Queue: 3 jobs
Job 1
Amino acid sequence: MDFSSLLQLVTARDLIDIALVAVVFYNLLLLIRGTRAVQVLLGLVFFAGLYWASGLARLATLEKILSGLLIVLPFAIIVLFQHEIRRGLATFGRNPLLTNFGAHQLTETTIHEVVLAASALATRKTGALIVLQRLEGLRNYVENGIRIDSRVSYDLLINIFTPGAPLHDGAVIIYDNRIAAASCFLPVKLDAEISTEFGTRHRAALGISSESDALAMVVSEETGSISLAVAGVLIRDLDSKTLRNHLYRYLITELGTTEGTG
């Protein structure tokens, strides 16, 4: 069968099928690129190749051992890639066709109050951690804190983070222009590559921004500097104007564009 005959057998449905499979695999590779999942995946490919080679070489003992390992492979993949799977499902949930079900833009007034409070806390070198929810829900983190459900205001944020106040430890979570909870505990990123100069607040900000699409703003009590964690990356040494611009971009401009496409 020549190439032209083969092309005649390929239908439009086949081309769509191939294109969708390519898109799925491409996005999976993008999802794990730059993470430890790449090394784990290479290890799994190595064992699969070793199993295939043991079958060809008729190495019965090795083949028997590897076949036993392959039985538990699906469970191992779930455990090893749980973070990537969770992040992939969350990425799918941010599809423009689905975002209208969970998108809540923050208003300029809310951003103004947050920036004002951050600037005042930075001047006083008062440590603070404020998480701003975007599309992905943070209900499990809200529930482990103290529920407040109050309008976002400069005075309230300052009082919450005042040293010695009952709620100054932990994070404040802001959702739908309201302070949902305070004194919330967040996942701490324990990556060895993170600089030792970062304390628990910065690591918690990196952790929550890695596991969700939320923004996490940190005020350092040592230096008084303001940082913003976005997608597991820390933007450091922000002044009030730059912080406002970043918050406006991520919480109003980008969400507005996403909702508009839905």
Note: The chain has two domains: 3-100, 104-261.
Job 2
Amino acid sequence: MNVDYSKKIWNLCVEQGIPLVYASSAATYGMGEYGFSDSYENMDQLKPLNPYGQSKLDFDLWALAQERKPFFWAGLKFFNVYGPNEVHKGRMASVVYHAFNQIQNNKHLKLFRSHHPDYKEGEQKREFIYVKDVVNVLIWLMNDRKSSAIYNLGSGKANTFLDLAHAVFKALNLSPEIEFIDTPVDIRDKYQYFTEADMSKLQKAGYTFPFYSIDQGVEDYVKNYLLKKAHI
């Protein structure tokens, strides 16, 4: 359904002369065997870890193969987005949101222990992007409409889970209290220890505005939304 519906939207945009910006996902990269570049090389060899990621990859490949395309289109591979208005996502809400609630309720935070010899506890790295940056890129693409392509959308800088945790504690004006727990066995073999968006293609397309750092984004989210309950 995810793929078929997207195809219908694509074809409607072609027929009606409507620009299209759609959501792909960094989940298409799987364990990152081929890195995190949004070039089309090796795209057909990517191995997503779940049906959601596979559906996004299937549509990306289908879109690239089409002769008839919207006059402008962009597929965005969102990395780990956090920010206001994600409460409805429940357990799928961002790590920042869950960390905030856990610290507020328990005064400490639990993080997964590292089970990889190359990574110390809490130093697993992920690419996090603040939702305000996502919105800025979306608006820019719809206004600029120069280079149709599939783009990564992250900040371009991976941060450790300790970086994120310390940013949340700092925004709450609390000293860090962190406990490490074992990663559940059923997800341990598919746990990603490193993701980082290569943002060079979007930059070459003309988007050169700065992104929020993890400290800046978390501080804004926590102080101006979560603490004030100004979020949905």
Note: Helices lie at 2-16, 51-65, 95-106, 131-144, 161-171, 185-188, 200-204, 214-226.
Job 3
Amino acid sequence: MLIYLMILAVFDWREKKVPLMLPVFGLAAAFMNLFYDLYHDPAEWKWLLAAAFLGIIPGILMLAVAGLTGKAGCGDGMVLLIIGLLTDYKSCILLLCFSMLLMSVFCISMLLLKKAKRNTRLPYLPFLTAVYAAGILVRHC
């Protein structure tokens, strides 16, 4: 997952957008993983579906923001959907919150240094990737 996020982050950083096929393939892989889990452990299907539903809520919210305001990209929401399907909902929500916090600190510092203006568009996925990598390090240390 980290390598996938790093690839997406590079596209997002360079071009300020992600090729739509990358999140679509990731979403397909996440659903295949969910179906595998359902097949592998059919007794737990209610809990697996409930966890998947709760996990995709941050992604749905990001897609809603993208559609309603245009202040976020659809790729960002799709990546959060993928993460929500592959992890538990608590991890996905924490990932969203900490990545937004990191992005806010970066934005404030760029504004104070006069390197960006109020309407400067910034990529989101590099911050999401950084927080995901930090979470892996924290869990393994």
Note: The radius of gyration is 16 Å.
